[in-house]
Design a protein that fits this description.
The chain is an all-alpha fold and 556 residues long. It is built from 23 helices and 2 strands. A two-stranded antiparallel ribbon has the order 1-2. Helix 5 crosses helix 22, helix 7 packs antiparallel against helix 16 and helix 11 packs antiparallel against helix 16.
Length: 556
């Protein structure tokens, strides 16, 4: 059984399955190849420049001060290493499926399933969070137009109850609150987030109709976002007070790292590019370029915008500010600019939902082609040339929870799933069979890591010597954060030794190490939920996928 758990698909087999994936059982249609490097780059920008820059950037700036730009740089470098590894895979395996397909080639079926299941967490939970954020911004826009939706139609019951109890405890008025005004259905208070539900339904329809329509919508929204952000910078630069940049690191680097989940959540969308490989005219050439281009563009935008808003308003004012970009202009009595920013935030969140709703069905389609999910998930619509059934299921999985799920859902779960996928993608590149460089359009630069990686590990141990000493001295004390740090030390030491022995390439190794470190900065409680999710996924695999896999031995 151990051998069958790690059964692998060859590169030639995956390429052939992609061609054969349009059999009668899959609907007899193929995906339309209409995307080019510009479309892919804009798709990456659409996914990355979303809710993060309009909401989570504020709390990250509060924790880290203006120096939070270092976290954007660290995250961008980490994603850059990973993007180069994705690009190598995309050049070698230009089919849909993203990290799932790549892991199937290098680590085997069990690892591929785990990654596929983790990506479901990334895309689904991530989109629920963005949909709820979209609803909040959309309601703000309506309020600016003197359109007032009932409070019980724009939130969830948990948030509504908490707001009511807080009002009662602090002797604040409760009239107009969702918990007070919600109609009753028996003993159940009817409280639901209708705008979040509707935007997911509408975006799912767009994703269902076709990639060409989705492409046009995403490109238009990206154009509007970039224009608005350019206006923010051009106006805001005249109101910068450099005294607000002092101190630059008020809470030292520990404060900067508190924003890991929020900042990394903003970056995860770039891997959605790889899910559209079969709809790209020249994936081996265009996908690597688009990944790098989108990361560079987004990092520059994040750093410039962060410096501008922390220069306009002191970082200490951003605590629990949901709309920091609009806030800084309202603070300077430029409410009209703030209102325009709120509108663009709605557009930004819409583009993120669209890209994620495109990516998730294509991962399921790949898993279905391999037999790990029912055949229905691989069906391609004859007219629209999209994975129709998988798109509908994705819409239900995101839309229904967005009606009721608490708006305070943390982004940590999404970040864990993504970082986990990134680690395996970087590690997988090291296991790919060598081929002639002329046979592919992108080549990951080879830099021997046998000297540089040990030097980096030694420097890490030197700068973190106090934390390492504390971890070993208090090893008997059950502290989950110390356990995570110790696991990182063991893994990084093992990777360093393997790099020396095997002469591994530097870039994939640095990608693994950076992603592993960012993972241990995520709170422990989110790890517990992540392990429960993965345990449920393994149960599904052993009850269905293991036996139905196309690589499973056939009974006589």
């Amino acid at each position: 059984m151990s051998n069958s758990l790690f059964r692998k698909k060859s590169l030639s087999k995956i390429m052939q399955d992609a061609k054969d994936g349009v059999s009668d059982s899959h609907g007899g249609a193929s995906l339309t190849k209409v995307l080019n490097v510009r479309d892919l780059t804009l798709m990456g920008v659409a996914a990355v420049i979303g809710a993060g820059i309009f909401s989570t950037i504020g709390q990250a700036a509060y924790n880290g001060g203006p120096g939070v730009i270092f976290l954007f740089l660290l995250t961008a470098v980490t994603c850059g290493f990973t993007a180069l590894c994705y690009a190598e895979f995309a050049s070698r395996v230009p089919v849909a499926g993203s990290a799932y397909t790549y892991s199937y080639v290098t680590f085997g079926e069990l690892a591929a399933w785990i990654i596929g299941w983790a990506l479901i967490l990334e895309y689904s939970i991530g989109n629920i969070v963005v949909a709820i954020s979209w609803s909040s911004y959309f309601n703000n826009v309506l309020e600016g137009m003197n359109i007032h939706l009932p409070a019980w139609l724009i939130t969830d019951s948990s948030t509504a109850k908490a707001a009511y109890e807080h009002a009662v405890a602090t002797n604040l008025p409760v009239e107009g609150l969702a918990w007070s005004t919600a109609p009753l259905l028996g003993s159940w208070k009817v409280i639901m987030n209708i705008p979040a539900f509707l935007i997911v339904v509408l975006i799912t329809i767009v994703a269902y109709i076709g990639i060409r329509e989705s492409k046009r919508s995403a490109n238009a929204m990206v154009g509007l976002k970039i224009i608005v952000l350019a206006v923010v910078v051009l106006i805001g630069v005249f109101y910068i007070n450099t005294d607000n940049w002092t101190p630059f690191l008020p809470n030292k680097f520990e404060g900067v790292l508190k924003g890991v989940s929020a900042v990394f959540f903003a970056y995860i969308g770039f891997d959605a590019i790889s899910t559209t490989a079969e709809e790209t005219a020249n994936p081996q050439r265009d996908m690597p370029r688009a990944m790098i281009y989108s990361l560079i563009i987004c990092t520059i935008i994040y750093i410039v915008v962060t410096l501008v808003i922390t220069g306009m308003v002191n970082y200490s004012e951003f605590n629990h500010i949901a709309d920091p970009l609009a806030y800084v202009f309202d603070k300077l009595n430029m409410e009209k600019v703030g209102y325009v920013i709120s509108i663009s935030a709605v557009v930004a969140a819409t583009s993120v939902i669209l890209v994620f709703q495109i990516g998730q069905p294509r991962i399921w389609m790949s898993m279905s082609r391999d037999g790990l999910l029912p055949k229905k998930f691989a069906k391609v619509h004859r007219k629209f040339h999209t994975p129709s059934f998988a798109t509908i299921v994705t819409g239900f999985i995101v839309a229904i929870p967005s009606l009721f799920v608490e708006s305070g859902i943390v982004t940590d779960l999404t970040s864990i799933g993504t970082l986990f996928a990134f680690v395996l993608v970087c590690g997988g590149v090291l296991l790919l069979p060598k081929v002639d460089k002329e046979s592919k359009k992108f080549n990951l630069p080879y830099i021997n890591g046998m000297i540089i990686v040990p030097a980096i590990f030694a420097l890490f141990c030197f700068f973190f010597r106090d934390k390492i000493g504390d971890t070993f001295v208090n090893l008997a004390t059950i502290d989950h954060e110390r356990i995570l740090f110790l696991i990182f030390l063991i893994l990084s030491f093992a990777i360093t030794v393997a790099t020396i022995i095997k002469r591994f390439s530097l870039i994939p190794v640095l990608g693994m190490l950076c992603c592993l470190y960012l993972m241990i900065e995520i709170p422990v409680k989110s790890w517990l939920v992540f392990f429960c999710w993965m345990g449920f996924g393994l149960l599904v695999y052993f009850l269905y996928g293991y036996w139905k896999s196309k690589l499973a031995p056939k009974q006589a």
